[in-house]
Every structure is written in C-alpha cells, then in structure tokens.
Amino acid sequence: MKLSPHFSLAEFTFSGTAARLGIDNGMPERLLPNAYRTASMLERIRLHLSSLAKREIPIIITSGYRCQQLNTAIGSRPTSDHVRGFAVDFKAPEFGTPLTICKALEPVLHVLDIGQLILEFSGPNGKGGWVHVSAKSPLKDINRVLTISRAGTVPGITEA
C-alpha cells in the first residue's frame, strides 16, 4: 500500500528489531491518517533536498511507525511520535550526512511543515547517526530543533 508516490506502508512499518523479537509492528487502521500526513511531509523533504542537489535524492526510512511494544523494546519514550505514526528516522546518503541534511532542513521547517527536527547520534564530521523528523500534529504544533548525542540533548543542530 502506497502512502505517497515514494513511500509505502511496508517501509514505514518495517523493523528488523521487531522481526528479530517476533513483534507484530502492523499499524492500526486508525493511525493511517497520521502515516499519510507523515509521508506527505517526507515528500516535501525529498523534493527540497532534490531541488538543492539538482537531482533526485532518495530517502531511506530507518524507522517509521513503532507499536508500543517495539518502542519499549528499543528503549524509546512512551510519548514518542513514532507510536502515533507522526515520526520517521531517515538517511539520504546521496544528499550528504545527517548533519548536512539537518542544516538544509532547519531554515525551512515551517515551509515543509516539520514539527520536530532532531540530529541523532551523529559522529565526528556529521557522519553516522540519522535524521528524525516529526510531522506537526494537532497535539504538538511546534517547531523543535535538537541534537541528541551520547553526551545529552542540546537545542539546535550542532556537530558532535
């Protein structure tokens, strides 16, 4: 099932951890509108990155929807936007590092309707880690920009 032209429900719900632990990470039908909204945001992000690069930039979802059991198993907070279908972790190596991606997205959060942008666990020179984005939701209509590392959480996008 397609959520948008470039993103499917299967990639949005896939989890190697869930498969390994035997957790059913199927998305409840009531959360599909959230998944469509998040996929729409991803399409805007993909278009923006492609426009900057002047070529098609694929986005690789590393974590989308997580059922509560999976979310707990990986040590994430119960209030994570992932459990409501509003969040995605991704990489776009053809564009650059997660740090480069976050720096490209930060100035246009409002235009892309991104509610939360987080650079997570990026290493030296912005390598490693991933980008976390949450779609704005009726419950959280904010633009929050953070960097999370082993040292802690700081506001803004910063290099490790």
Describe the structure in your own words:
By secondary structure, the chain is α+β, with helices and mostly antiparallel strands. It has a domain at 9-114: Muramoyl-pentapeptide Carboxypeptidase, domain 2. Helix content is 32%, strand content 20%. The chain is built from six helices and six strands, in the order αααβαβααββββ. A six-stranded mixed beta sheet has the order 1-2-4-3-5-6. The termini are far apart.
CATH class label of the domain at 9-114 = Alpha Beta
Please state the overall shape, judged from the principal axes of the Cα atoms. Answer: globular
Tell me the series of helices and strands, N- to C-terminal: HHHEHEHHEEEE
Here the CATH topology of the domain at 9-114 equals Muramoyl-pentapeptide Carboxypeptidase, domain 2
Helix content: 25-40%
Q: What is the SS-derived class?
A: alpha+beta
- Count all strands and give the number: 6
Q: Strands of the biggest beta sheet: in what spatial order?
A: 1-2-4-3-5-6
How would you state the average pLDDT, rounded?
A: 93
Strand content: 15-25%
